[in-house]
Amino acid sequence: xxxxxxxxxxxxxxxxxxxxxxxxxxxxxxxxxxxxxxxxxxxxxxxxxxxxxxxxxxxxxxxxxxxxxxxxxxxxxxxxxxxxxxxxxxxxxxxxxxxxxxxxxxxxxxxxxxxxxxxxxxxxxxxxxxxxxxxxxxxxxxxxxxxxxxxxxxxxxxxxx
Length: 161
Description:
InterPro entries: Cop_transporter
Shape: extended
Radius of gyration: 23 Å
Mean pLDDT: 78
Structural class: mainly alpha
Number of helices: 3
Order of helices and strands: EEEEHHH
Region (Disordered): 1-27
Low-confidence stretches: 151-159
Protein name: Copper transport protein
Transmembrane segments: 59-79, 100-118
Strand content: 5-15%
Helix content: 40-55%
Number of strands: 4
Largest sheet: 2 strands, antiparallel
Subcellular location: Membrane
């Protein structure tokens, strides 16, 4: 770096040590240490979406995994929703408004799934991917569609959202 223009006076980073591979720590205003994982880990002691949730109890962790799974399935359901259910039809103002609201809800729920995965917990990643896969199988694949239901809706029953 000594011969590079504009790099005068820059100090090279210190060599890495085993401590560099530990989870990052941040201080809160009440001087308590909070562990923030920066790599994927396997364990039930994670914070998913909310501070302190699901805690350290196994049952709450399983409930959090079920919640992320169901959330992922709902995102896929809303992704493949084709009908507005409005009497006026999808080209009317009310139909467009309903589709816009459904789109906003889908995007918001998708970001919640993304934030859950950003907990870097492998279990959360697995159930999020599994939820999207099951949701796509149920609502996006052609397995449950009848031959005449190509534009009439989605899912096993062909019903609109």
